[in-house]
Amino acid sequence: MVSALALSAAEARLSEQLNSRTTGVLRCVVSGPSGDGLGLAQVVWLATDDGWIGARSEPDWTGRRMVALRPVAREDIGVWVAPYLAQLLEGTDG
User: Fold this and answer.
1) In the structure, what pLDDT confidence band is assigned to residue 79 with cuts at 50, 70 and 90?
2) Quick check: 69 and 54 in contact, CB under 8 A?
3) What CA–CA distances, in Å, run from 54 to 48, 49, 51, 69, 70?
4) Is there a smaller number of Cβ atoms within 10 Å at the N or the C end of the chain?
5) pTM of the model
C-alpha cells in the first residue's frame, strides 16, 4: 500500500508510526454556499497516546499533496476551524 502512495522511506516510517499510535480521529466539517456552488473544508485531528496531532494540508513545491502534522491542544480547535468558516461567511450575503 505504501508504494501506491509513492512515499519515501522516511515518510513511510512516519506514516507507520502515526498509524500505530493513533487511538481516534476528530473531524470537523465546515460547509456552506460559496460562489455558484458549495464550499467544503475539513479539519482533521488525530488522538494519539501522546496527545492530539493536527493534520493540515500543505502542498510542497513539487505540487504533491503533503500534510503537515502539528501538536495541538483541545483549546486550539477554534483557531483551526475559524479560517474556513470565515471564508464561507465572507462569500454569503448574510
Assistant:
1) very high
2) yes
3) 11, 14, 10, 6, 5
4) C
5) 0.78
- Is residue 90 classed exposed, middle or buried when 0-12, 13-18 and 19+ CB atoms within 10 A define those classes? exposed
Residues 40 and 88: their CA atoms lie apart, in Å, by 9
User: In terms of Cα–Cα distance, which of 28, 36, 26 is closest to 85?
Assistant: 28
State the CB neighbour count (10 A cutoff) for residue 46.
Answer: 20
Q: For residue 31, how far is the Cα from the chain centroid? A: 15
Query: Which of left, alpha, beta for 86 (phi over 0: left; psi -120 to 50: alpha)?
Result: alpha
- pLDDT tens for each residue of 5-60: 778 888 889 889 889 999 999 999 988 887 778 888 899 999 998 999 999 888 77
pLDDT for residue 92: 57
